[in-house]
Amino acid sequence: MHFTSAQRLDDGVLEREFTLGEIPGTLWTPESAAPAPLILMAHNNGLPRAAARLVARARHTAAYGYAVAAVDAPGCGDRPRSAADEQVRADLRRAMQAGEPVDDIFESFIGPLVERAVPEWRATLDALLALPEIGGPVGYSGWTAVGIRLAAVEPRIAAAGFFAGGYVPRAQREEARQVTIPLLFLLQWDDEGNPRQRALDLFDAFGSKEKTLHANMGGHTGTPWFEVEDGGRFFGRHLK
Amino acid sequence: MHFTSAQRLDDGVLEREFTLGEIPGTLWTPESAAPAPLILMAHNNGLPRAAARLVARARHTAAYGYAVAAVDAPGCGDRPRSAADEQVRADLRRAMQAGEPVDDIFESFIGPLVERAVPEWRATLDALLALPEIGGPVGYSGWTAVGIRLAAVEPRIAAAGFFAGGYVPRAQREEARQVTIPLLFLLQWDDEGNPRQRALDLFDAFGSKEKTLHANMGGHTGTPWFEVEDGGRFFGRHLK
Questions:
Q1: pLDDT given at position B195
Q2: Which one of A177, A228, B72, B200 counts the least CB within 10 Å of its CB?
Q3: Strands, DSSP E only, in A21-146?
Q4: SUPFAM superfamilies given for it (chains A, B) (predicted)?
Q5: Is B89 part of any domain?
Q6: What is the extent of the structural domain holding A49?
Q7: In a domain, A87, yes or no
Q8: What is the pLDDT of residue A192?
Q9: Does A203 touch chain B (CB under 8 A)?
Q10: d(CA B164, CA B157)
């Protein structure tokens, strides 16, 4: 893991860019001297780690006293795209503009992306936990499909907050029953393009004994800011 | 409003029994000198105001800095029951033990109870707001059916937390669209005897632009304690 830049933010949080082999990432750490618990943060559908909403959430969470890390998935964010990556994105755009069903395209796009992203997240986790400023336990926040696979295969993940607004491949819908850690599942009630019933079925499917659904009004990007604070308290119950 | 007893609790909360005409009630007020915002608290289906879970919630909420009031509905708690009250309760017990449908019995029991309870809550609210130790604004917590009617007809109610686990008469399911105040709707995912889909449909029906659903695992009485604290923060956003 190589740090390529660093800046100290107003609230004392240190924001550093890093690379781990081909993987570009960002690490936010709080000002405190003690090793901080870690939260891995990702956007649904492989949206860039530099997206404003993720950065705002990461900075706020770090200011609470967590180390927060985000990486770009293969073909996403700062990473080069293959011809196949470009093709599936073009197919998706075309189908969406035409109002055609997009489930099959999402399946062929997000399914393989999860398969490629999860081993990278595990390698990143190894590298992060080797840093002296980061302690356990580890939480996960955001991209549901990657989080399901990670929670199913990675015993170091102790609690997770998932955002329902993203495509969850068939394989991860099956794997949801294998997830047994405490969960906070965040749903936008009228999320355009993400059917509500599918999200409720997924919440029902998770194997966790302790799982909480928070649903709020509005569309995909309308999550109220107080949910960031609720997420902080959820992690506070399980990671501290 | 006549106070009939008073005790100071360990955390400084003053717990007083009162009567207002035929209505028996309890008022919890915080230690602070300034007039406190008020939360009206009721159990679904007219359960007694003296029930341990309501008392625990009321005391905790008062310790946060709220005045909290609960009254017994007609024929409930400390109040005398008519022969008709006794009959409908006996019918309900018999049907439940026999595993028969209970919707029609609940409708004939809870429907009239809401009609009788809401004017009493409004009279109680008048009397409470005349006390120097209580200021506005006013919140409501608990019994969904009474809360829907109150929120629809009583402009002094500024925000409400409803617990989904109780029978909501047809009239209040219709009135839900007239509720426009901020809502926190609390659902136990596997509440025995309170169908999940009916609760989700009710959440969908509320007219409020700002409404949040919190769903947790387990049966009717399994609500985790952190939801009391989440409720406190919800009221903190809207009543302070």
A1: 93
A2: A177
A3: 23-29, 36-42, 67-71, 134-143
A4: alpha/beta-Hydrolases
A5: no
A6: 2-79+113-239
A7: no
A8: 87
A9: yes
A10: 19
Average pLDDT over residues A121-141: 96
Disruptive mutation site among A181, A188, A217 for chain B (greatest number of B CBs within 10 Å): A217
> With contact defined as beta carbons under 8 Å apart, do A70 and A42 qualify?
yes
Residue B88, both tokens = 């409908």
pLDDT at A195: 93
Q: What is the CATH number of the domain that holds B40?
A: 3.40.50.1820
On whether residue B111 sits in a domain, the answer given is no
| Rg (alpha carbons) of chain A, rounded to whole number | 17
In a domain, B104, yes or no: no
- As for how many domains chain B has, the answer is 1
CA distance A2 to chain B (A): 40
Q: According to the model, what pLDDT value does residue B136 have? A: 80
Mean pLDDT over B1-23 rounds to 96
- Is 90 exceeded by the pLDDT of residue B33? no
pLDDT at A118 (0 to 100) = 98
| Token pair in block for residue B130 | 């005349």
What per-residue confidence (pLDDT) applies to B217? 97
Interchain proximity A210–B233, CB inside 8 Å: no
